[in-house]
Structures are given as C-alpha cells and as structure tokens.
C-alpha cells in the first residue's frame, strides 16, 4: 500500500512512520506529477496542490489527509462525487494562533509600536497612553478550537467574550453567544473583534459596510481566518473612515498581498503574511492526528477517523 506525502517532513519523522507502519510504503516529499500518484491509496497534502487533474490521475485514491485546517482550495464537489474521505488537522493551530493574536492585541492596547519607534529615534517620551484589557469586550467569529483558545486567554485578562457562529450554539470559553444574524446589533459594544472563520458559502462576504460601520471608533479588528470574509476595498474604506480604529490582518483576498495594495501603507493596519499558525511543532502535531487515523484506516474503521471534513459544508 502506497502513502504519498506531497511535502517534506523531517528525517526522524519519516523513520518514525516507517517503524510504526512497516507494512506501508511511504513516499515522502513528492510532487503531484509523481507517477506514484496513480497507485497511492492515501495522499497527505497541504491541500492547494489537489486539483481535478490530480484526482483524475489518482485512480486508487481512498483517503486524503490535509495537513491544514482549510480545504476551500480543493475540488470538494468531485471529491464528494467519488466518496473519498477527507480529514484535516483542525485544532493543531490553536496554540500558535491564539498566542499570536493575543500578542497583537496587547501590542496595540499597550502602544508597543510607539515604544519601538521612539527607541529607533533615541527619544524619551512618557506621553504614551495604553489601555487595559480588563473589563473590555471581545467578539470572536468562529469560536471553534482556535476561537475558544483565544477566548480562554482573553478571559484570563478579564475580558468578556462573545462567540458568534452560524447557529448561536454555545462554545467553550464564551460568556455569551450570538448567531450571524445578531452581528450588527452586537458590534457596537465590542472593543475587539476577531475572526477565525473558515471559508464556506455562508462566510464568504459575511461582513459588509454595515458591519464595519457598526464598530466602535476605538475597536481593533483582527482577521486570522480567511480573506474572503469581506471585500478588501470595503475594509479599507471602513479603516479610512475610522471604524474600526485599526486592523491586524493575517489573511487576504489575494496572497501574497500585492505590493500595490493600500494595506501596506496604512498606519492603522498591521500586515502579517499568513504566518500566525507557524510553529516548530506544526508537523509533529499533524502527525499526532494522522497516525491514529492511519491505524483506523488500516483497521477499516474509517467512520472513527478524527477530523472528518464534510465536503458539502467545506469544513
């Protein structure tokens, strides 16, 4: 049985897999045009390199393991038609991403950018007025594994957390919950607005002029989910009008962000090049999900595999 990895992992991780699964022929660091694609039962990928041409050639394919949370770049319709199970690594990003978001929030509220700029100028100026997180309110769009973790960290700072999802169903580390329909009414109360929503038919273009216009003129907006949550020109106009006050963006409509994008030059925008999930433990955590799933696959217990993706919903 062939298992094809479309990316590189470390040598000791390769040896670990070979030792744990001696009956499997692993092919590491291959490309989608590798001839082994046609015989492999399992493909391990970051997702973006799986297109309809790859699916047509992968005639023996019976499971796709995506070492990412998002699967929106994959031909989900064709995958559904062929009945190929898809799993992802949902949940492994929560620690690095929540830590990164918290760092950006604290840097903004404590005016650390101003501190760093003054140091560059050798300037001693104590007229820096930061604000506290204590007793503030944060709205988290998409309180899943990542959203709940940033909620937990913010609650430790005395922040009241509001979760927002499709159903309004309760989520961990959220003091209150709303559904998408309650956004406009809730946004005027929020000091921090965070999105970690995936890209789905329900979330694409979810935020419009009325949502940004409803935000406080002191609010910080962070998007660490997907760049199609809104039209970028709508956000730029909102930031120019002062609602929200500032934005930290890790995802964009087009990536890499074009050099001529106005976002690069805006003083109230922090551009993060989609790196919030980066961690030296990324592959390690991915394999922690892949290995039990591979055992379940070999045992014929596909229904028991963790992190199954619904191709119709996109997550």
UniProtKB/TrEMBL annotation:
Keywords: NAD, Oxidoreductase, Pyruvate. Residues 8-308 form the D-isomer specific 2-hydroxyacid dehydrogenase catalytic domain. It is an enzyme of class 1 (oxidoreductase). SUPFAM superfamilies: Formate/glycerate dehydrogenase catalytic domain-like, NAD(P)-binding Rossmann-fold domains. The keyword Signal does not apply. This is Glyoxylate/hydroxypyruvate reductase B. Residues 102-276 form the D-isomer specific 2-hydroxyacid dehydrogenase NAD-binding domain. InterPro entries: D-isomer_2_OHA_DH_cat_dom, D-isomer_DH_NAD-bd, NAD(P)-bd_dom_sf. One of its GO terms (molecular function) is NAD binding. Its EC number is 1.1.1.79. Coiled coil: none annotated.
């Amino acid at each position: 049985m062939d298992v094809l990895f479309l990316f590189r992992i470390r040598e000791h991780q390769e040896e670990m897999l070979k030792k744990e699964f001696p009956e499997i022929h692993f092919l590491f660091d291959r490309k989608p045009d590798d001839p082994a694609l046609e015989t492999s039962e399992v493909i391990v990928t970051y997702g973006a390199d799986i297109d309809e041409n790859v699916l047509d050639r992968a005639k023996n394919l019976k499971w796709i393991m995506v070492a990412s949370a998002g699967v929106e770049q994959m031909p989900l319709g064709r995958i559904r038609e062929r009945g190929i199970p898809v799993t992802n690594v949902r949940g492994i990003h929560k620690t690095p991403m929540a830590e990164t978001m918290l760092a950006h929030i604290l840097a903004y509220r404590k005016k650390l950018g101003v501190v760093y700029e003054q140091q560059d100028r050798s300037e001693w100026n104590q007229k820096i007025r930061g604000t506290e997180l204590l007793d503030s309110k944060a709205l988290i769009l998409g309180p899943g594994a990542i959203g709940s973790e940033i909620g937990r960290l913010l609650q430790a700072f005395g922040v009241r957390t509001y979760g927002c999802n499709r159903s309004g169903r309760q989520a961990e580390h959220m003091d209150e919950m709303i559904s998408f329909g309650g956004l406009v009414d809730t946004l005027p109360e929020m000091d921090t607005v965070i999105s970690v929503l995936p890209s789905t038919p329900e979330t694409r273009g979810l935020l419009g002029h009325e949502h940004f216009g409803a935000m406080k003129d002191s609010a910080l907006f962070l998007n660490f989910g997907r760049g199609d949550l809104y039209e970028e020109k709508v956000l730029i106009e909102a930031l120019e009008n002062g609602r929200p006050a500032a934005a930290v963006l890790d995802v964009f409509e087009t990536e890499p962000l074009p050099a001529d994008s106005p976002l690069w030059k805006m003083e109230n925008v922090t551009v993060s090049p989609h790196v919030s999930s980066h961690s030296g433990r990324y592959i390690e955590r991915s394999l922690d999900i892949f290995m039990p799933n591979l055992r379940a696959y070999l045992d014929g217990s596909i229904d028991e595999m963790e992190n199954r993706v619904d191709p119709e919903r996109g997550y």
